[in-house]
Design brief:
Length: 290
């Protein structure tokens, strides 16, 4: 591939990247850093890219990965992933200097930071769902500007990450969030770290508190996001959900990632949207979670 090829998806390009570093950050969980100024300079928090291992026909298709963060030099970025299948097992063997194929940035990310001063942003994550929130949090803090348009808003209230996991060994990169100025509260199913229980219990406490959040961003297992959306709706707090839908192409051609959304214009009251194209971030109140 001689250079980036422009794809029919906004600012997306098809290109290659060189592995800069790889680090295990929790049980079966890795952070992969890639040298690719073309995508690093364009991608925004909440967007994703498709990654494929070159020279292989098994697995043949690429896999979607959300932006973790962009390095301060603007030349590289990182993604996070959990080893759960053949593709991710092979990715865990990548070492510095190896090459991967990419296309992106893809999809619509989180809304721009709210500098109104109305209240803090809560970011609610489950499992690997913390991945998109380091960049989102740094942007809210005004510590970094993302995308070729330089999204930036003066910070109002520091964001907070509410992070749920099965147990302490699956909790990834908390010191990295805290070093960026993002407080983290953890809940684990077995009580081995933080609150013994679900992350939604932490959210319910924040929504009922005096310092009510201005908005909530969430990413993780669908049952968790459904519960988050319900809590936010009851409290009258806007919520955006970043879906983890399986994807095959990443730019809307295959329709493998469709999700049901509420649509008053439809006779049935709902319609389908492509998560890769109209999402992966949706206003939570539009999702049926069916």
């Amino acid at each position: 591939m001689s250079g980036p090829a422009v794809l029919p998806h906004a600012d997306a390009v098809q290109t290659t990247a060189t592995v800069a570093a790889q680090k295990q950050i929790a049980k079966g969980t890795f952070r992969l850093s890639l040298n690719c100024p073309t995508i690093a300079g364009r991608i925004e928090p909440g967007q994703f890219l498709m990654l494929r291992l070159p020279g292989r026909d098994d697995p043949l298709l690429g896999r979607p990965f959300a932006l973790y963060d962009v390095a301060d030099d603007g030349a590289s970025f990182s993604i996070g992933y959990v080893v759960i299948g053949k593709m991710t097992r092979l990715m865990a063997e990548l070492t510095a200097g190896e090459t991967v194929e990419l296309w992106g940035p893809l999809g619509h990310g989180f809304p721009e930071p709210d500098a109104s001063g109305a209240g803090p942003t809560l970011m609610v994550a489950g499992g690997i769902g913390q991945t998109p929130f380091l960049a989102a949090g740094r942007e809210i803090l005004g510590a970094a500007a993302y995308g070729d348009r330089g999204r930036f808003a003066p910070p109002a209230h520091p964001p907070e990450l509410l992070y749920g996991a099965r147990s302490a060994e699956y909790v990834a990169d908390v010191p990295r969030f805290e070093a960026a100025g993002i407080p983290v509260s953890v809940a684990t199913d077995d009580g081995s770290l933080g609150r013994h229980g679900f992350v939604t219990e932490l959210l319910a406490e924040r929504l009922a508190g005096e310092r009510k959040p201005a908005r909530v961003l969430t990413c993780g297992p669908e049952p968790m996001m459904k519960a988050v959306a319900k809590l936010c709706a009851a409290a009258g707090v806007p919520c955006w959900a970043s879906l983890e839908s399986p994807m095959a192409c990443g730019f809307g051609a295959c329709f493998s990632c469709v999700v049901k959304v509420r649509d008053d214009r439809s006779a049935d009251g709902w319609d389908y949207r492509r998560s890769c194209l109209e999402g992966p971030v949706f206003p939570a109140e539009t999702l049926t979670f069916d």
